[in-house]
Amino acid sequence: MSKENPTAQTMYAIHSSDRLKVLMERVGTGEAITSRELAATAGVAHGTIGGLMSGAQRIVPVEKAQAIADALGVKLLVLFVEMERAGRSFIPAQASA
Questions:
Q1: Residue 59: CB atoms within 10 Å
Q2: Rounded to the nearest 10 degrees, what angle do helices 46-54 and 17-25 cross at?
Q3: What pLDDT band is residue 83 in, cutting at 50, 70 and 90?
Q4: Contact at 8 Å (CB) between 73 and 24?
Q5: What is the pTM of this model?
Q6: Contact 72, 38 (CB under 8 A)
Q7: CA nearest 81: which of 69, 23, 54, 48?
Q8: Residue 42: exposed, middle, or buried by beta-carbon count in 10 A (0-12, 13-18, 19+)?
Q9: How far apart, in Å, do the first and last CA atoms of the chain sit?
Q10: Secondary structure class of 13 (helix, strand, coil)
């Protein structure tokens, strides 16, 4: 029987920084959004968005991932991949590039 940590936060890895940049060129409204605007709209630090765009940061908690996806007007799994499966963390191949 597997024991899951109920306080463990589900983490998400970004598919690719290029996908984020493309989605920022045309959000749900049809207009572009800057990294600072995205950070403010999603309620996350500008450094988080910058890190995701540059590839310096690839992993964020579910709340941040969902907020970023919502701010861009896309579903969570369009931009991120869930990292926890069967109690193990991993980064899928498509998220490691």
A1: 18
A2: 120
A3: confident
A4: no
A5: 0.79
A6: yes
A7: 69
A8: buried
A9: 34
A10: strand
